[in-house]
Amino acid sequence: MKILVVGSGGREHALAWKIAQSPRVAQVYVAPGNAGTAIDAVNVPIQADDIAGIIQFAKQESIDITVVGPEVPLVLGLVDFMQDAGLRVFGPSKAAAELEGSKVFCKNLLHSADIPTADYRSYRNADDAARYIKDRYSEPNDPVNVVIKADGLAAGKGVIVCDTRSEALEAIDRIAHQREFGEAGKELIIEERLFGQEASVLAITDGETIVTLPAAQDHKPAHDGDTGPNTGGMGAYCPTPIVDEAMMEKVQSDVLVPVVHAMKRARRPFKGVLYAGMMLTSAGPKVLEFNVRFGDPECQPLLMRLKTDLVDIIEATIDGRLAELEPLEWDERPSICVVMASEGYPGSYEKGRTIRGLDRAAALPDVKVFHAGTAMDQDRVVNAGGRVLGVTAIGDSISNAKLKAYTAVKEIRWEGAWCRKDISDKALR
To answer: What is the pTM of this model?
Structure first.
């Protein structure tokens, strides 16, 4: 088989690496890929949102299956266009992808399906949103405990947690007036802030059968101790002990099954990866958001542990045969992904800095360095994004996997490189 992976991040590198291990696969292409996917697959210079270019390449190369990694091409309808062209593709339709593409749509669906989530209000008019805050809180430093969210896609950054009235008003201004997140801010949500530990529960569904994957825990804030601005994710580990068997059954029965049924009723049947971002509150698990693809960086430690052939899972999903698939096999050992980032991320950063030590890190046992924001500059690997590498390791225990991952991190250097030092510490506590 020939398989095309669409995207250029750490998630796509992990997908290409795992798909290439299938004895059924002769060649893996990645469009556009990065410096790491160039080692494990063949890069194709087509951007992830170039729908016509991807379709043309898939036809020209007789691609058997296309796997869409990131959310943007899914929300643009790449799956629909490819199916219309007679091509086999893994991922949800444009209508189903709105579950991630619009936070307002997602919240309304959760509410109508009685799925536990935070209380919220949505606004098209920023002045109305600001008036709501001003009416409820009179002083600038009044504690508010709200989260302001841009409605559309914002690369994981369109969520601002606010502690005071003035912070909430500033967040509304940033999203709606300054358009910090572009068109994503044309509508916004004011949401009750939930407290507890976050967990990511991913499932693969063909619209009828749901196959739940082991729970992972992402680390969104930039700095140690969950401080600093929100990012696309600074690291993850899998499995997470905070989601035990009873909690997982509750998430399946109260969240995953109802959302698949609700999407079917809405005539948006869901096929692909369903990612529930959960807050484990004192009142039980509540949904923070839904994504419609593998999480990045959760995909990396998940696929590090997967023993079942990923191509078999992908094919069964496309063909509506997930019920016939044998139970998935997993390496029992936990795995951890530590994201190494560019200086300045999640704000502005400089690109083109030479990355050294990748060979030394790759030579370490039980370690895989997944590339995210990298590129080749002649014979040098350079940083080309905010989140640059996902250094992933598997070990006999969470602390052992953490030691292996950070040992590999120490081998890698470029000017301004940094990472959180506490990925997985919540599990150790």
So the answer is: 0.94
